[in-house]
Amino acid sequence: MSYKQLKLENQLCFRLYAASHLITRQYKPYLDELGITYPQYLVFMVLWEHENLTVNVISKKLLLNTNTVTPLLKRMETQGWLYRERSKEDERKVIVKLSQKGSQLKEKAADIPISLAKYYIPDVLSLDEFEQLKSLLDRLILDLSE
Question: Is residue 8 part of a domain?
């Protein structure tokens, strides 16, 4: 038996892992200027869009476990970017709100996606290919997360 299924070159998961790692590396200089990490950037994007959310909702939107998100939120709170408070209606729920400092970071981060898109489009992918790739990945993520 040749075990072709075990060759790295035949793995979709490796391609996704490598692409994710390399794309995240492209974000690093931009995020370093803001003093944040990529996971923190993801939390900010969720909160900039929806403002006050529970830890559970943030975790679901990021497809992460709450035990992964909670320490991240604690570090961000220590930095003064957000604050957490217990829900008055349900003590078990923790509401996450951006501080003024966290809200102001949105303006500084606004050009990051555009800057990175200029790198990929049209040199690496056409706009149509980019949209098609996003759509395919959305389908894959939806199917795998159910």
Answer: no
